[in-house]
Amino acid sequence: YYNTGRETFIVPVVWRNEWPVMDPGPHGVQYTYKANFPEVKQPGARPQSGNFAYTLTFEKQLDPALLFLRTVDSSSFSLSKAKGLTLKLKPETVAETGNPSFIGKRQQHMYCTTETELTFAPKAENEKAGLVVFQDEKHFYYLCKSVANGQPLLQLFKSTTDVKNPELLAQMPLKSAAGSVQLRIRAQGGAYGFHFSENGKTWNVLKDQVDGKFVSTQVAGGFIGCLFGMYATSSGQPTANTAAFKYLKYAGNDPVYKQLK
Prior knowledge:
The chain is mainly beta. The chain has a single domain (53-259), classed as Jelly Rolls (Sandwich), CATH 2.60.120.200. Helices cover 3% and strands 44% of the residues. It contains two helices and 17 strands. The strands form three sheets. Strands 3, 5, 6, 8, 13, 14, 15 and 17 form an eight-stranded antiparallel beta sheet that branches. The longest helix has 5 residues, at 255-259. It starts with 12 loop residues before the first strand and ends with a helix.
């Protein structure tokens, strides 16, 4: 099982009987190769191989690595140095085929971490904002801040065949209704861990060892892999509320790259 999508690699090729043969050596395709040509540094380029790590900020423009679901709706978000990325809550959800308020990046490692700081004051139970592990409309996990009976909560949902009723896997009360909260998702091979912090220092586990196979290519189908998305929804109801994401951190931690050092 794997949760990454199709990637691009460069390997040695020879032609045999009018067919290309990838890496004709005795050990097949390797994880790394020594390039026989100089590297040309690209200003501002993000790393794309190994256990890289970087932080995306949202002061002036969105990074090219970020993706929308379907048509870009420029009216649904804004950027600023003070708040970062502000998403308008939209009635559309990622469980449907509309145009939700969602911006994400690809999961590029089987072992990795993604993290953000969310500032959001939900006004009703239908209003939610947070991070989603998204494979398709029927296969995703949603770590979000919301409210129930006047109490601010952090919740974890799993998609179901009923687009209006995802399964609630876990929830935990938060101290502040309007304050910021840090959200973290850890991919651990065949499982995900969902964590949060209200002070940026002490991290709490909302739920660990959540089944990663559910959002894998073998179960969900396709070939695109998972996205880690910043996502805000009013679950079918109109609202003027917004949610701000200060940054988006990503760090790969695949064991195979550690063995190559």
